[in-house]
Amino acid sequence: MTIKVSCIQMDIAFGLQEENYKKASSLIEKAMLEQPNIIVLPELWTTGYDLTRLDEIADEQAEKSISFLKNIAQKHQVHLVGGSVANKTSDGTLNTLLIVSKHGELVHQYSKLHLFKLMDEHLYLSAGQEKGLFSLDGQIYGGVICYDIRFPEWIRAHTTEGAEALFVVAEWPLARLNHWRSLLIARAIENQCYVIACNRAGSDPNNQFAGHSMIIDPWGEIIAEAGEGEEILTGSIDLNKVKEVRKMIPIFDDRRPELY
Ligand SMILES: NC(=O)CCC(=O)C(=O)O
After folding, report:
1. How many CB atoms lie within 10 A of CB 206?
2. Is 193 a catalytic residue?
3. How far is the CA of 173 from the centre of ligand 1 (A)?
4. In this prediction, does ipTM exceed 0.95?
5. Which CATH number covers residue 17?
6. Considering its fold, how many domains does the chain have in total?
7. Residue 207 lies in domain
8. Looking at ligand 1, which atom is closest to the CA of residue 170?
9. Global pTM value
10. Is residue 15 part of a domain?
11. How far is ligand 1, taken at its centre, from the CA of residue 35, in Å?
12. What is the pLDDT along the chain (260 residues), one digit of tens a residue?
């Protein structure tokens, strides 16, 4: 099964939700010219890392963002791995990835499990508790957020439960671009899965971001990679290739989980 995916590598206006909704909407419109099946947005794309004002600007139960994504998905008949948003709940504010199907249904919400202290997330955000496993058109995927890719055991927990492609949404700084690229390629090779990673472009008061969204195949080959600036990155993935690679080197059969 071949699936076309587009990553919206957008710059994000710091703390300005309405501006970001408008920008995302127009970039998605543009991405639709290539007729993707799935569109991916970056991490915290409605607010950026405006963490000190989260109390004021976080989306109550992510309602506004969910409704925005549902409308867009239905209008364009496209699945959305709708990036993450600051989601105000009774358990604190979560960094929540929203998956919306082309029928306008909220399929899954995944809240970032590993909070990134270097960017003060632990001071303003609460951590999630559940996996980012979801299904679209009968196909199982995993979805994780940025810093999560440094935890191979977390990614493995998704691929052992059937994920054949991993979506990563991120605000990854340019200062660690080589980590971003290497970790994504490693996660693809060791899990023999596709990795579709959507980073943001631009800068905020604290960081310059790396861009370099990537689509990587289960052999670790880069199918498409963006530059540093704002860009829509599109590529096709063929999920049969996952089975082929897993047959050639059967790491899922050869694992010794009883020993580690
Ligand atoms: N937004 C993030 O989680 C950034 C993670 C990061 O930069 C890293 O080096 O890890």
Report:
1. 12
2. no
3. 7
4. yes
5. 3.60.110.10
6. 1
7. 2-254
8. 1
9. 0.98
10. yes
11. 31
12. 799 999 999 999 999 999 999 999 999 999 999 999 999 999 999 999 999 999 999 999 999 999 999 999 999 999 999 999 999 999 999 999 999 999 999 999 999 999 999 999 999 999 999 999 999 999 999 999 999 999 999 999 999 999 999 999 999 999 999 999 999 999 999 999 999 999 999 999 999 999 999 999 999 999 999 999 999 999 999 999 999 999 999 999 999 999 99
